[in-house]
Design goal:
The structure holds 2 protein chains of 2 kinds. By secondary structure, chain A is mainly α. Chain A folds into 2 domains: 15-177, no CATH class; 180-333, no CATH class. Helices cover 63% and strands 0% of the residues of chain A. Chain A contains 18 helices and no strands. In chain A, helix 2 (42-64) runs parallel beside helix 5 (95-110), helix 4 (77-88) packs parallel to helix 6 (123-134) and helix 5 crosses helix 6. Chain A is globular, with a radius of gyration of 21 Å. The relative contact order of chain A is 0.11. Chain B has 2 domains: 2-28 and 122-341, Rossmann fold (3-Layer(aba) Sandwich); 370-509, Fumarate Reductase Iron-sulfur Protein, Chain B, domain 2, CATH 1.10.1060. In chain B, helix 2 (125-134) crosses helix 4 (184-198) and helix 3 crosses helix 5 (212-225). Chain B is globular, with a radius of gyration of 31 Å. Classes of the chains: A mainly alpha, B alpha/beta. At the A-B interface, helix 1 of A face strand 15, strand 16, helix 9, helix 12 and helix 13 of B. The complex binds iron/sulfur cluster (2 copies).
């Protein structure tokens, strides 16, 4: 009797790209709910817009490049790009912002580099940076957490929808519903010579890093921990980012706590936790080895602090990640692990 | 000795899939009608036939002798008549045919008179080794390296530890497990003989913790022999625990140098089934003519372990186990991680056949579509050799074989761990095998080219030398002529040199 031949191993594969990416999406669910709780429905609408355009752009690029649609759409990587970009947008940003960002991310940052696995830059962050540079005003008009503006002016789902697709509804004062984020606020206040202790008495600062933001941070942390537990991501990159950022913040805070925010503030504000667990961990654009990844994470953390403290932008995750993306091959080269049975260096 | 176990890097927790074949005791299969003995069942040179077609042979009679240093003898596994020495399909990944001695059994299964070496305890190491060599024993764990060579120890360095590998980490395979359960005495006796041959201080018998029955049986055998040098060690079940280098790391925390052997760190590793075969060869004078094969998988009616004659064709082995069941997609020799598929069940059981796996389509799904590498690093985490499979893959695809070697391709043990965990479902091991063959091919080519170049250079050198010699002759002749012409030439030369020296002096001051 004759049989077909095939190469080993013969066991069924243990996982798939789609399964991994889907778990990353699941891990974002609790934090997304918290986001909705504090900032209204905006983020969900942004996600839907981003996802629609991302899938359309992905499908278009795949067919242009003559690739099969099904396996590549099933890998869910475009979905991740869309969702992460939506997280980075102000919840009431106009719809075309998400569309432009995600199309740039998928078409330029991903497919023109060769598609899944070949992109040098994290697509979501590339898209975000393009938006930030091209549309700085729209990108920084952040909605205030509900409690600051009071239940009375809280945007309903329909009002949010209208704000996104047709501009803020008449009768709603934009200034009343938007506010600088704590990071922004701190930055402007510091530049005006105020000291931290008095700045942070503003109610928006909440317990540590901004009312609402800190809770979202906690849920992101939980999601990240679950991903580590599921072994979707490993600890090196997140730990590196948080240590780099928190460590440097701690040093300056220790030197002068009146002009430098606490490490807790830095870690829980802005996109630090999101970046540490969900953005910098994008494997494609990160170094390959454990040691390399730890170095990569640390450098991102340090860069984030440097950009926040001395750079031109209130938050620096996107720039830090993109900069370190460029350094990844270099890190790879110097962190090749020692092979079994070879001399210890 | 092994009070503290170490942990080898990487690896996987895999399902055992061994229950089906361990539910019943080892079944001894009677000799089949026809025996097919490949001349190359081991690592090294093929054996050289010692019989001719038409000759009658007995069980245990040597039919092919070891050829060269690394080789192993082959014995008839039942009595009968040699009908041919010709190419026959052999179990090899290539699916090709190779020279085999084919014997038609006469059904009497007569054996040659065994010559036991019963007083082996007083024999010296050389005699034991010779016996092992003449019995045609090779590593029965699947590697099939001639065992007597690995019983030679090292002259410069006293051997510290003999490790008997009973880990059997690969899913589906249970032949060693059943052997240890039922014939633990033979294993321990074999260990004692090996200790004598090696002059080793002690012996560790390593068994994975998913084989409690085997461990118990070994413990009982140890109590019987009461040999304080031999110790049973239970190691964690983790693939590839049974890999020689991984097991050594688990037991001793030491690594075998990448370009060396376990011997270099005072260790020798043998499979438990090899130890049992050594016992039979020495104590009973029986050469290796049968082995235990696990016959399992969803595609076989009665999964079990069979003691089968070497040379039994797989088709008959399957028939002995109730035949095929359902739709068999693959017939695999070895386990589902490191085995290879057979083109046909006409291939015979050889000394390296530890398992015959008849897998249905549901058990072993055909690979889904491969995606590009997303550099997730799962493969690197799983690699027991601390390689970066994603980099190896990348450079293999680019056909940059220099870089592939810089990333230590040749330290890959082809365990398949990386392959299994890859979310993009890339057939990594296939790529690495391909890269290895390419590089071997290239090296061969280069060696050939080097030879040609050396020959060319030698000729060139000879021509040049001849030309130089002629030139030299001509010059000497000319010089003699010059000398005769002018005796003043020399004086003029000296004056010129002095002048030059003077000039230089002035320039400097
Ligand atoms: S496991 Fe597969 S996808 Fe992940 S890095 Fe390795 S080769 Fe690439
Ligand atoms: S097959 Fe090779 S590269 Fe892959 S895990 Fe095993 S040793 Fe490492």
């Amino acid at each position: 009797m004759n049989f077909n031949q095939a190469p080993a191993p013969f066991l069924k594969p243990l996982t798939s790209v789609g399964a991994i990416m889907r778990q990353v999406l699941y891990a974002l669910v609790p934090a997304t709910i918290a986001y909705v709780w504090f900032f209204g429905w905006g983020i969900v609408i942004q996600m839907l817009i981003a996802v629609v355009f991302a899938l359309a752009a992905e499908a278009m690029m795949l067919s242009l490049r003559g690739r099969p649609l099904r396996p590549f759409l099933g890998d869910c990587s475009a979905l991740i790009t869309a969702v992460l970009l939506a997280w980075a947008l102000p919840p009431t940003a106009p719809w075309w912002l998400a569309a432009v960002g995600v199309i740039f991310a998928i078409v330029f940052a991903k497919h023109l580099y060769g598609g899944l696995g070949y992109n040098v830059f994290n697509p979501a962050m590339a898209g975000y940076v393009v938006l930030l540079i091209s549309f700085p005003q729209q990108m920084t008009q952040w909605i205030a957490p509900d409690f600051l503006i009071g239940e009375s002016v809280r945007l309903s789902f329909m009002e949010t929808l209208q704000a996104i697709f047709a501009g803020f509804p008449a009768g709603i004062d934009i200034d009343a519903v938007t506010a600088a984020t704590p990071l922004d606020h701190l930055r402007t206040q510091l530049s005006q010579g105020a000291v931290i202790q008095e700045i942070t008495t503003h109610p928006m600062y909440g317990m540590a890093a901004g009312h609402g933001w800190e809770w979202i941070g906690v849920f992101l942390l939980l999601g990240g921990a679950w991903l580590m537990y599921r072994r979707v991501i490993k600890w090196q990159i997140p730990a590196g980012v948080l240590l780099g950022l928190g460590g440097l913040a701690a040093i300056f805070w220790f030197i002068d706590p009146s002009t430098h925010a606490s490490p807790l503030f830095h870690v829980f504000s802005g996109a630090a936790i999101l970046g540490a667990f969900f953005i910098a961990t994008d494997p494609v654009s990160a170094p390959a080895s454990d040691k390399g990844r730890l170095i990569y994470g640390l450098c991102i953390g340090v860069l984030v602090y440097v950009i926040r403290a001395w750079g031109g932008y209130p938050d620096g995750i996107a720039f830090a990640v993109l900069l370190m993306n460029m350094a990844a091959p270099f890190i790879d080269h110097y962190t090749k692990p020692r092979t079994y049975g070879h001399e210890r260096p | 000795m092994a009070e503290r176990l170490h942990r080898f890097r990487g690896g996987l927790e895999l399902p055992g899939m061994k229950e089906a074949a361990t539910a019943s005791p080892i079944r001894v299969m009677p000799p089949p009608k026809r025996i097919v003995l490949p001349l190359s069942q081991h690592i090294g040179e093929p054996a050289k036939p010692r019989v001719a077609p038409g000759e009658r042979v007995l069980r245990g009679q040597m039919v092919a002798a070891a050829e060269g240093v690394i080789s192993a003898a082959i014995h008839a596994s039942t009595s009968g008549t040699v009908v041919a020495i010709e190419d026959h399909l052999v179990p090899h990944p290539s699916g090709l045919a190779a020279p085999c001695i084919i014997i038609d059994a006469d059904g009497r299964d007569e054996a040659i008179e065994p010559v036991p070496l019963s007083d082996w305890e007083n024999r010296d190491a050389g005699e034991i080794r010779e016996r092992v060599r003449d019995a045609g024993i090779v590593g029965l764990g699947g590697a099939a390296f001639p065992s007597w060579i690995k019983l030679s120890g090292n002259r410069d360095q006293p051997l510290d530890t003999l490790i008997l590998n009973g880990a059997e980490c690969e899913p589906c395979i249970s032949c060693d497990d059943m052997l240890m359960r039922e014939r633990a005495d033979e294993v321990i006796s074999g260990a004692r003989i090996m200790l004598r041959a090696l002059h080793a201080r002690h012996c560790l018998v390593a068994v994975e913790d998913n084989k409690p029955e085997a461990a118990e049986a070994l413990q009982a055998a140890l109590a019987k022999f009461a040999d304080p040098r031999i110790e049973l060690v239970i190691v964690p079940s983790r693939y590839p625990q049974g890999g020689e280098r991984q097991l050594i790391e688990t037991l001793t925390g030491r690594e075998v140098p990448h370009d060396g052997l376990p011997l270099d760190i005072g260790i020798v590793c043998h499979n438990v089934a090899t130890a049992a075969a050594v016992h039979r060869a020495v104590v009973h004078g029986e050469p290796l003519t049968s082995r235990i094969v696990t016959v399992t998988g969803g595609g076989v009616a009665e999964p079990c372990n069979v003691e089968a004659r070497i040379g039994t064709r797989m088709s008959e082995l399957i028939a002995f186990c109730g035949g095929y069941r359902g739709d068999v997609a693959r017939l695999i020799m070895g386990g589902p991680m490191m085995g290879f598929t057979l083109r046909s069940d006409d291939a015979p059981v050889i000394k390296a056949s530890n398992c015959l796996l008849a897998g249905t389509a549901e058990e072993f799904a055909p690979r889904r579509e491969t995606l590009p590498c997303i550099r997730c690093g799962a493969c690197a985490d799983a690699c027991p050799a601390s390689l970066l499979p994603q980099m190896l893959y990348w450079h293999t695809r680019a056909r940059d074989f220099e870089r592939v070697q810089e990333y230590d391709l040749f330290d890959c043990i082809e365990c398949g761990s990386c392959d299994l965990v890859c979310p993009s479902q890339i057939p990594l091991v296939s790529h690495f095998r391909y890269a290895k063959t390419e590089i071997w091919g290239k090296n061969e080519e280069r060696a050939k080219a080097d030879n040609a170049r050396r020959r060319h250079e030698a000729r060139q050198a000879r021509l040049e030398r001849e030309a130089r010699e002629q030139e030299e002759k001509r010059r000497r002749k000319l010089e003699a002529l010059e000398k005769m012409k002018s005796g003043d030439a020399k004086k003029a030369e000296i004056a010129a040199a002095l002048e030059r020296a003077q000039k230089r002096k002035e320039e400097r001051s």
